[in-house]
Design goal:
Layout: H1 2-17, H2 25-29, E1 33-38, E2 42-47, H3 51-58, H4 62-68, E3 79-86, E4 92-101, E5 104-109, E6 112-117, E7 124-129, E8 139-153, E9 174-187, E10 190-204, E11 210-214, E12 219-223, E13 227-248, H5 249-252, E14 260-282, E15 289-293, E16 302-312, E17 315-322, E18 336-343
Antiparallel strand pairs: 1-2, 3-4, 4-5, 5-6, 6-7, 8-9, 8-18, 9-10, 10-13, 11-12, 13-14, 14-15, 14-16, 16-17, 17-18
Length: about 350
């Protein structure tokens, strides 16, 4: 009897929670109904369509009423479905479920769970509210920002050393990307990512006294002994299309965003701009001056390469490597840009 009283109380809570969505309930009650009140706010409403039905109701006890509901019990889990919603597509959704195991009873109402323990002298009741379960959409879009550092690799596979005028200073050589991405779910935890973005590269020279200028046939790095160099760099911007295949082990194991994610794929871009900038002071101590060359500096117009990502939780790291060189053939040193950083 305690169990049935608890169930009716919980059903009353559901009625109160959804009262705003059921404006026609009072109209139905005012027809021919029997209202059983218990506690401070609990109600059981039984609608009777005829006098004959009412006479049959008087002959029934609470156990017969429960049996007449024809509640289905899951033999494997021991769960008993009390309230079920019929959807438009013909499927059903369980709203109230009950599971009994010895002296313990578990009642689930949506995302709320009530645990009743009658194993001791006193009955213990514990109420838990679970977080809403998110559904992973089959197709989704997002906007993200890449923030990393840039460098390039020489033909021997290493970074240019300081004795080269174009050697890059690690801190200050930034790579910024603005990306509009989409993801199509192929299977559970397996996605096809693709999108379009803008990438901005800065290659800041470690040797700040060298200036990159456009010569007659190729790029030249000139040492400026006539001024006090303060900063020297080459910059380039690209519009880039990319695509990757992604494995999300958290989704595969139903751990949400807690698992490891890896992705890799090709990209291709077209250059929008490129220039060199040299900031210096006169030897007599003048203020800063800038010398810019918006000429492209023999940069490649087309770039292509491989992008990789690895992430855990909300943190994602990326790396890109251009398979072609930064400068046009025979127009500058053979250097393949590389960058790595974090995705926001």
């Amino acid at each position: 009897m305690k169990k049935y009283l608890l169930l009716f109380c919980l059903m009353a809570m559901v009625q109160v929670a959804f009262a705003a969505k059921l404006p026609s309930l009072d109209t139905e009650i005012n027809k021919d109904s029997v209202i059983v009140e218990f506690g401070k706010a609990g109600k059981i409403v039984i609608i009777v369509e005829s006098k004959e039905d009412f006479e049959k109701l008087k002959m029934m006890n609470i156990d017969e009423i429960i049996k007449s509901l024809d509640l289905q019990e899951n033999k494997e889990t021991g769960e008993l479905t009390i309230v079920q919603i019929q959807k438009k597509d013909g499927s059903t959704k369980d709203v109230v479920k009950v599971r009994e195991e010895g002296a313990e009873t578990e009642v689930n109402i949506g995302r709320m769970r009530v645990l009743v323990d009658e194993s001791g002298q006193n009955t213990k009741v514990k109420i838990e509210s679970g977080a809403k379960k998110t559904v992973d959409p089959s197709f989704k879009t997002n906007f993200n920002i890449d923030l990393g550092v840039s460098n390039y690799l020489s033909p021997d596979g290493g970074f240019p050393t300081s004795d080269n005028p174009y050697a890059v200073k690690g801190w200050g050589s930034w790579n910024v990307g603005l990306n509009w991405m989409a993801a199509q779910r192929i299977s559970k935890g397996f996605y096809w990512d693709f999108g379009l973005g803008f990438q901005f590269y800065n290659f800041k020279f470690e040797n700040k006294d060298f200036q990159a200028v456009r010569g007659d046939e190729m790029i030249e790095f000139i040492q400026r002994n006539d001024v006090d160099g303060f900063k020297s760099k080459i910059s380039a911007s690209y519009i880039t299309a990319m695509t990757m295949l992604e494995l999300d082990f958290g989704k595969m194991n139903d751990n949400g965003k807690k698992g490891l994610r890896i992705a890799a794929g090709p990209y291709a871009g077209y250059r929008l701009g490129g220039r060199s900038k040299f900031i210096y002071r006169e030897l007599d101590g003048s203020g800063r001056k800038k010398d810019k060359q918006d000429t492209g500096l023999y940069l490649q117009n087309f770039r292509y390469g491989i992008r990789g990502e690895i992430g855990v939780g909300r943190v994602t790291f990326f790396t890109t490597y251009d398979l072609n060189t930064l400068f046009q053939d025979q127009k500058g040193p053979e250097l393949n840009p590389i960058s790595f950083g974090i995705v926001f």
